[in-house]
Amino acid sequence: MQTNLSTKTRNWMAVASIPVMIWTAIPLLWILATSLKGTDALADPTKNSFGNFWPKDPTLENYRVIFTGGASDLFNPALRNSIIVCLVATLISVILAMFCAYAISRLDFPGKKLILTTALAVSFFPVIAMVTPLFNLWRQVGLFDTIPGLIIPYLALTLPLSIWTLSAFFQQIPWEMEQAAQVDGATSWQAFRKVIAPLAAPGVFTTAIIAFFTAWNDFVFSSNLTSSNNSRTVPAALAFFTGASQFTQPTGAIAAAAVIVTIPVVILVLLFQRRIVAGLTSGAVKG
Amino acid sequence: MSTVATSETTGAQPTGEKAPRSRLSDRARAERSLGWKLAGPAFIVMLLVTLYPIAYAIYLSLFSYRLTDPQSRRFIGLQNYITSLTDPLFWEAFVTTTIIVVITLVIELVLGMAIAMLMNRIVLPRRTLRTIVLIPYAIITVVSAFSWTFAASVDTGFINHWLHTLSFSQFPLDYDWFGGRWSSLTIICLSEIWKTTPFMSLLLLAGLAQVDSSLEEAAKVDGATWWQRFRRVILPNMKAALMVAVLFRTLDAIRIYDNPVIMTGGANKTTTLSMLVANETINRVEIGIGSALAVILFIIVLIVAFIFVRGFKVDLTTGGK
């Protein structure tokens, strides 16, 4: 299909893609640039090039502030909480969803459609509507500002998404290959390990990435259901950098912290772009 | 669209035979039971973490109840709903949210469509473009909010400097974006658009891929202009994907919270419905009113989804083509 495009159209499209890439890259480059500015360079256009954009004299001072300096008691626990809460929520959802999606794609039982419709419907719940009742309940049962008190609501974000995405992946697996392998003399375990597991693993992995992104992004739960370093995750902690007056100018520290939490997700996108796209769209639109 | 499981899924037992339901074979009965044993835990946990809080919110919304004063909690029926719906602050937040939903939806549709068409046909930087376009999807919304806030602020920002240069020094260097309602909303929408257009364009790209390119070729041979081909061939053939993208985006935008909280904190009439719920609940500990507002927001989402599914015939389960 691409071959019948004229060279002129091709070149035109290559040119048109440039503004799209610039539009995407600028806010990212900007937060990186801000993180490399010293306190004195933040608001001083003469110390930056490209119209107050890129620092002429980049410094890693802000990174020192968040890891070992004044903001470290805010950032380090938050980073630890983020990693623990997101990994545990992702792990629980993917394991539960794996059994569920397997049943949906392989077995015939009434209620399959109900499960998938519910999963889709609840993923568009206004999450803030869950905050008020949980805030009240967590205060009474002592889960307010604790790690499990965040993991449970995070399941509301990751589990429906995992069920939906993983079911879409599993339905594309040629399950009859398992029987074929057994006919050829493989044991059930061999058939599972050598045939089914390699086919299912990419879908499980991609679902885990997408679920992790969703949990990593959360601000609604973590800003309203936490009150201290006990359980506050990075997005919520970033908002508190502003209020805290432990250091004079929080802009650079916020930018540095933002860069740190952005690096892992950008790496995941760079490595698994194709799979993530398949996972995001397969559930909604058959591509 | 589609992928919701249908019974003809590969590997499933053919149940289409004329056997009456009461005489399910042992094998089919065992399969049903195994199916629910495997799918049940996930389904129950999902209901517990989502529907239970909503049900609890409905219950709490019927009480006059401050967290700091649990003794005087009493049943007041629908009074919280009346209080909320007659509060000018509620309608202000409703209007703000609607403005954000409409602006971001329209711009993202146009921008997302353009990017999707580019990604669909582009040859040379194909992979690079697809990867770069996807990145904002993975960025934390709060990070995007901070990036745009710093970019637009008078002292640390670059936007004013760039606009100043581009307008041949006409644009004031000290323009305060966060000083007024509309300029604040502009930056909020920009951040929201930057962050969520990738998902929009991916959904649209998947729709575009379903359009039979020979139809477009035929229209081209018949002398249709580019615009005619777009309107008469491409759009009707990807209607299902288009409506799904619009529905997903609308429902997502209604609950906007992160961006305005970080950027303005609700100043200059930029409080959204979600922020209102959080303010009542967390800052004023008015659990009753907060729950009522949460339920109202939930009902708004239901109404919008209902309008789409019924009115525009968006079929999320068996789906278009």
UniProtKB/TrEMBL annotation, chain A:
Q: Which InterPro entries match?
A: BP-dep_ABC_trans_perm, MetI-like, MetI-like_sf
Q: Which residues form the ABC transmembrane type-1 domain?
A: 79-272
Q: Membrane spanning segments where? A: 12-33, 82-102, 114-138, 150-170, 195-216, 253-272
Where found?
Answer: Cell membrane
- Keywords assigned by UniProt? Cell membrane, Membrane, Transmembrane, Transmembrane helix, Transport
Domain of life, per UniProt, equals Bacteria
Looking up SUPFAM superfamilies in the UniProt record yields: MetI-like
**Topology in the lipid bilayer:** Multi-pass membrane protein
The UniProt record lists the keyword Membrane: yes
Q: Which PANTHER family match?
A: INNER MEMBRANE ABC TRANSPORTER PERMEASE PROTEIN YCJP (PTHR32243:SF18), MALTOSE TRANSPORT SYSTEM PERMEASE-RELATED (PTHR32243)
The family note in this entry says: Belongs to the binding-protein-dependent transport system permease family.
What name goes with this protein? Answer: Carbohydrate ABC transporter permease
Q: What is the lineage of its organism?
A: Bacteria, Bacillati, Actinomycetota, Actinomycetes, Micrococcales
From TrEMBL, chain B:
* Compartments reported by the entry: Cell membrane
Pfam families from the UniProt entry:
BPD_transp_1 (PF00528)
Q: Could you tell me the keywords of this UniProt record?
A: Cell membrane, Membrane, Transmembrane, Transmembrane helix, Transport
Please report the organism this UniProt entry assigns to the protein: Luteipulveratus flavus
Family indicated by similarity:
Belongs to the binding-protein-dependent transport system permease family.
Instruction: Please give the InterPro entries that the UniProt record associates with this protein.
Output: MetI-like, MetI-like_sf
Span list, region Disordered? 1-26
Name the domain of life. Bacteria
**Membrane-spanning intervals of the chain:** 38-59, 93-119, 131-151, 287-309
The name on file for this protein is Sugar ABC transporter permease
Q: How does it sit in the membrane?
A: Multi-pass membrane protein
Its primary localisation, in coarse terms, equals membrane
Bias class Polar residues marks the residues at 1-13
Give residue ranges for domain ABC transmembrane type-1: 94-308
